[in-house]
């Protein structure tokens, strides 16, 4: 089974982090000091999030537009009627998308909703060093976070029962509506993915259709393992929609190549509703960083090596594999 190539460009313009031995896991965006982290696996991540939060960040306190504007813009993006459910001036605005119906017990169907909170103080210190170590999409991500003093929180509501692509479509339209109506937004922070984008990156999403959610809601992370040459890279964010994230435990491969590869595999799972069964293979990546059908890597589903605990599709990269794998570490070629 092959996967599509060329869906994403190079993720990091800066060199990959220098290898550093760590006590448990580590990884730092280029230019920052590597840090040592202990795993915190006591609290298990849910298979999906009943609410997915999206945070607009600001350096100056914004004014929130009137509810009618949100309803109008969201309706234009979704192509359906939008009802205003709540419109408290100093509280939550919420809206129902009449074209996206969720079926509950008793065959009752109700519209999925979205909500937006009023502007509030943003406490950047609550985003810890572990999360800050994986802000690969922006330079000086920690400084960008610390420069923001206010946030506007967005979420879906009563939407977790939607098919995941419809839910992703709703979240994407809602975020892009808010970006349009808050021109002073400095950055977007998505906690379920541990992903930070500056305004320009968020507004200029290079993907199309339902794939646009991947740009906002999925991050690729990089860790070195202390006391070995092992590295772990994974996606974070697909689990929030009820899909498995993707993981590679490896040695010697170029982390930039692996980053692009994991995005491609994650995109394939997302586009095709996870068609890969345990023990099946996907195309691997060659020395030039290209997806290569002559290289087949075996897949299995397991608990993630790196927090948060969740199910991932682990790909065994043949002779580059680290750790013990089901059936052993098999070679690269067909």
Topology:
Layout: E1 53-58, H1 67-78, E2 82-87, E3 93-104, E4 108-116, E5 120-121, H2 129-132, H3 141-147, E6 150-157, H4 164-181, E7 187-190, E8 195-198, H5 199-203, H6 212-217, E9 219-224, E10 231-236, E11 245-250, H7 255-272, E12 281-285, E13 291-303, E14 311-316
Parallel strand pairs: 11-14
Antiparallel strand pairs: 1-6, 1-7, 2-3, 3-4, 4-6, 5-6, 7-8, 9-10, 10-11, 12-13, 13-14
Helix pairs in contact: 1-4
H and E string: EHEEEEHHEHEEHHEEEHEEE
Shape: globular
Taking pLDDT < 50 over at least 5 consecutive residues as the criterion, the unreliable ranges are: 1-26, 28-33
Q: What oligomerization state is this entry in?
A: single chain
- Major sheet, described briefly? 8 strands, antiparallel
Q: How many angstroms separate the termini?
A: 12 Å
What is the tally of helical segments? 7
What is the SS-derived class?
alpha+beta
Helix content: 10-25%
Radius of gyration: 20 Å
Number of strands: 14
- The portion of residues forming beta strands comes to 25-35%
- Average predicted local confidence, pLDDT: 86
Structure description:
This protein is of the alpha+beta class. It has helices at 67-78, 129-132, 141-147, 164-181, 199-203, 212-217, 255-272; strands spanning 53-58, 82-87, 93-104, 108-116, 120-121, 150-157, 187-190, 195-198, 219-224, 231-236, 245-250, 281-285, 291-303, 311-316. Helix 1 (67-78) packs across helix 4 (164-181). The longest helix is centred in the middle third of the chain and has 18 residues, at 164-181. The protein is globular, with a radius of gyration of 20 Å.
């Amino acid at each position: 089974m092959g996967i599509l190539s060329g869906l994403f460009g190079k993720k990091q313009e800066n060199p990959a982090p220098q290898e550093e031995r760590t006590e448990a896991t580590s990884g730092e965006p280029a230019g920052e000091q590597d840090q040592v982290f202990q795993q915190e696996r006591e609290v298990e991540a849910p298979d999906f999030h009943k609410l997915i939060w999206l945070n607009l960040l600001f350096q100056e306190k914004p004014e929130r537009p009137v509810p009618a504007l949100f309803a109008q813009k969201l309706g234009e993006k979704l192509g359906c009627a939008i009802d205003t459910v709540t419109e408290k001036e100093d509280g939550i605005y919420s809206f129902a998308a009449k074209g996206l119906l969720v079926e509950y017990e008793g065959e009752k169907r109700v519209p999925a909703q979205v909500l937006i909170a009023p502007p509030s103080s943003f406490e950047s210190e609550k985003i810890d060093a572990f999360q800050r170590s994986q802000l690969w999409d922006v330079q000086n991500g920690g400084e960008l976070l610390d420069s923001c003093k206010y946030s506007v929180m967005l979420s879906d509501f009563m939407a977790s029962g939607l098919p995941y692509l419809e839910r992703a479509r709703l979240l994407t339209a809602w975020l892009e509506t808010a970006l349009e109506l808050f021109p002073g937004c400095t950055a977007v922070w998505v906690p379920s993915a541990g992903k930070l984008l500056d305004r320009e990156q968020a507004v200029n999403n290079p993907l199309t259709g339902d794939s646009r959610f991947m740009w906002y809601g999925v991050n690729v992370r990089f860790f070195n393992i202390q006391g070995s040459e092992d590295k772990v890279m994974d996606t974070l964010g697909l689990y929030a929609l009820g899909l498995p994230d993707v993981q590679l435990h490896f040695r010697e491969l170029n982390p930039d190549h692996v980053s692009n590869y994991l995005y491609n595999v994650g995109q394939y799972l997302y586009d095709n509703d996870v068609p890969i069964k345990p023990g099946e293979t996907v195309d691997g990546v060659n020395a030039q960083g290209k997806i290569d059908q002559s290289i087949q890597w075996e897949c299995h589903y397991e608990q993630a090596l790196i927090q948060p605990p969740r199910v991932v599709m682990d790909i065994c990269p043949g002779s580059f594999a680290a750790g013990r794998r089901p059936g052993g570490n098999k070679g690269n070629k067909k």
